[in-house]
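If your schedule permits, I should be very grateful for your opinion on a structural question. The matter concerns a single protein, recorded as an amino acid sequence and a row of backbone structure tokens. Could you please explain, in whatever detail you think fit, how the structure tokens follow from the sequence? I set the record out below, with my sincere thanks for your time.

——
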Amino acid sequence: MSGQMARPLAGQISLWIQDQVRMAGAKGLVVGLSGGIDSAVVASLARMACGDNVLALLMPCHSDPASASDAMAVAKKIGVKTHTADLTAACDALVAQVPHAEGIELANVAPRLRMTALYCAAQTHGYLVAGTSNKTESMIGYFTKWGDGASDMRPIGNLYKYQVRRLAAELGIPQEIIEKQPTADLWLGQTDENEIGMAYDELDALLQALDAGKIGQHSPEAVQRVKKMIARSEHKRCAIPTFQPDGLL
């Protein structure tokens, strides 16, 4: 705007969150706090927008205990209320009752249980669920459908991972969280970059190049790999296909 300083990104998102909460007639926000950078940033933005009307829900499920320690450190730093719901027993009880193998379908149970817990807490308090997915993960489908992909709003959904890191620094998120190896905490030792098979910096650069139509500086193999990830996960980003009859039934 002419003659005025642009509002910092954190302030822009904070105002947007306030609008979403107000339009929904809600009182505040619930955030799943994992100990990673994305949830730390969203929890901090939620605190800016909603003050004390924020609940950070910690939901360990066969998780690394260090994740809970990091999450509590973030909560203390930004001053949000916390509640811990250990979902390990619930996950084991559910898995024991349904057909399953030992692949990704088993790992996806935890994110979907976390979604259920978040919405239970949100409805109890009259809050909305703030999602923690970023643009990088959304574009390649690196999220669980109806798990961490389910929320009422996505405050950082249009930010690449490198932009989330910059925003984290602006918000004063502890440096050890910013530099921490990203993980969905689906099993001990699991990391995002190992699962994706590519470092976030390279992935961000490739996704931006694809958006701009300027992929010449990237290897054809890497470009094709990312294109395949985008194509295979398209169903995660689309509305549910619904049959439309030709006429009245």
Notes: The chain has a mean pLDDT of 92.
